[in-house]
Amino acid sequence: MTEDDLDDLEFDTLRTGDHISAAERLSALAESVTGGVSRANVLLRAGEQWQHAGDHGKAAELYRRAMEDGGEVYGDPRAYLADALFELGKADEARTLVDQIRADKPRDPEVYRTVAEVLYAQGDASGAHDWATSGADVVLALRDRAVGTGIGDPDEPPVPDDESLTPGPDDVALAEDSLEALLRLRYRARIDLGRSEDDYDALLDDLLKN
């Protein structure tokens, strides 16, 4: 089992819309997975399929199992679990997870994007704005360290500068892939909040022009 195999399965599911079958298959695969993917990764993907199918309870169960497994995963399983918990009416538990993620100061901009999208879906435009801004700052701070550009706030760097290694082009490119999505979400939240355009919105304009 490889990442490409999992991607193919999810692509087929987008075409067929049969999320339940995909969730069941992934859940079964997680029990015997070998090769280039971790059991936790497959469990997380299974949880996402259950959530797409509308079964947030099963999704939460799979997300918890992915967290307990402790294997390598994409993003942060707590963000996905928070999404399921919100849908289950367990907002306090969900926000506790969001607070835990914030306290850990993640360096993956996709974690910020996921949390921002979750909060925006719950009608929390202010929270979504803050998370999207922090995610953009992570990308810009990474760009600063790599090439000396960006508009991140130097007084409040979101990424600690205690690393001795300079990020490489591939690291920056992966982070830059998240930037447009973060800025788009941030812009939608600003419109909802009635805020005027700022430097981040100007940056989004530049990205869209290019």
Q: DSSP helix count? A: 10
State the assembly state of the protein chains: single chain
User: Which residue ranges are poorly predicted, with pLDDT under 50 across at least 5 consecutive positions?
Assistant: 149-165
Instruction: Please give the alpha-carbon distance between the first and last residues.
Output: 37 Å
Overall SS class: mainly alpha
CATH homologous superfamily title of the largest domain: Tetratricopeptide repeat domain
How many structurally independent domains?
2
Mean pLDDT equals 86
- Helix and strand succession? HHHHHHHHHH
Q: What's the architecture of the largest domain, going by CATH? A: Alpha Horseshoe
In CATH, the topology of the largest domain is named Serine Threonine Protein Phosphatase 5, Tetratricopeptide repeat
Q: Main sheet?
A: none
Helix content: over 70%
Beta content = under 5%
The beta-strand count equals 0
The coarse silhouette is globular
Rg on CA atoms, Å? 18 Å
CATH class of the largest domain: Mainly Alpha
Region (Disordered): 149-170
Protein name: Tetratricopeptide repeat protein
Organism: Actinomadura montaniterrae
Biased composition (Acidic residues): 153-164
Give an overview of the whole structure.
With 210 residues, the chain is mainly alpha-helical. It has 2 domains: 1-104, Tetratricopeptide repeat domain (Serine Threonine Protein Phosphatase 5, Tetratricopeptide repeat, Alpha Horseshoe); 106-148 and 165-209, no CATH class. It has 10 helices and no strands. The protein has helices at residues 3-16, 19-30, 39-52, 56-69, 77-87, 91-103, 109-121, 125-147, 169-193, 199-209. Residues 149-170 are annotated as: Disordered. Residues 153-164 have a biased composition (Acidic residues). It holds the Pfam family TPR_19.
